[in-house]
Design goal:
Length: 156
């Protein structure tokens, strides 16, 4: 993880704070680019919960200029304030940063273009909050327990 700061959310286990890059069109809202589509069910509610837990959210979108400003404003009106927008940190400046890269450095990327599509926002929250994979959550929902692989002889 990029940001390994423990946050105690219960007396049972610490939660690792993550940097999470989130797409806008097709992820937070239905894809109607350049317009702003309807909110995806529970998207901003989930993002607010992640912010409350201390995660840093980066808006990671193809939008630029006016359409980007509209997306940031749309999210802000719903209580979702991003740590950074299309960059790793708010102060990052392409012209002054000799190591500038368009590739965002994040622990997790939430995007409708993921292989396998975008899980619903409840599952996304569960993955982050419980630090589980999508596969683990699906198996649990089916009442199956994923067997841990046996250690190799050299790992014993």
């Amino acid at each position: 993880m990029l940001n390994n700061v423990p946050l105690f959310t219960s007396h049972f286990s610490p939660l690792t704070i993550m940097i999470i890059a989130v797409d806008f069109d097709g992820t937070i809202v239905q894809d109607r680019y350049p317009e702003i589509g309807s909110e995806m069910p529970f998207a901003t509610q989930t993002l607010r919960m992640l912010l409350e837990e201390g995660h840093q959210l980066i808006l990671w979108t193809v939008r630029q200029g006016k359409t980007l400003e509209e997306a940031v404003e749309w999210c802000a009106k719903r209580g979702v304030e991003f740590y950074a927008v299309n960059k790793d940190f708010p102060e990052e400046n392409e012209k002054e940063n000799t190591t500038y890269s368009r590739k965002i450095k994040a622990d997790m990327f939430i995007d409708d273009r993921n292989i396998g599509g975008l899980p619903d926002w409840g599952v996304l929250y569960q993955m982050i909050h419980e630090q589980k994979t999508h596969e683990e959550i699906l198996l649990e929902s089916l009442g199956k327990i994923r067997e841990k692989p046996k250690k190799k002889w050299w790992q014993i």
